[in-house]
Structure formats: structure tokens, C-alpha cells
Amino acid sequence: MPVHPICHRTIHATFSNVELARMTTDGAELRAHPEMQRFLTWVAEKPANFHAPTRHRR
């Protein structure tokens, strides 16, 4: 599934590859995670070409 680069970096900064492999493919588990909900609320107001540094949280 195509994912915007800032979203892709945030997903990998929040979840390990093992965690991602265990999730369903529809993205519901990603969107339900509290850190991702905060990110999605924040990024929703940004233009489509928005880019920002991503902190590595794992």
C-alpha cells in the first residue's frame, strides 16, 4: 500500500517490523494506536507535500 514518506517514517519509528507483521493489512490497528492517533490528528492539517524530521521512539 503506498504511504506518504512522513507517515512511513512515523510508522517505523513507532512499531518494530515484528509488530507490523502481526497487524492486519487494513491499517485499523495502526490508526487505533494512541501515538499514531496523535500523529494523524497533527498531520491532517498539513499540506500533502509536507515533510518533517521523524524522531526514533522505539
Structural account:
The protein is an all-alpha fold and 58 residues long. 53% of the residues lie in helices and 0% in strands. The protein has 4 helices and no strands. The longest helix is centred in the N-terminal third of the chain and has 10 residues, at 5-14. It is globular and about 30 Å long.
Fold blueprint:
Layout (H helix, E strand, L loop, with lengths): L4 H10 L2 H6 L5 H5 L1 H10 L15
Low-confidence stretches: none
User: Number of DSSP strands?
Assistant: 0
Helix content: 40-55%
Secondary-structure content class: mainly alpha
List descriptors.
58 residues; mainly alpha; 53% helix
Quick structural summary:
By secondary structure, this protein is an all-alpha fold. The protein has 4 helices and no strands.
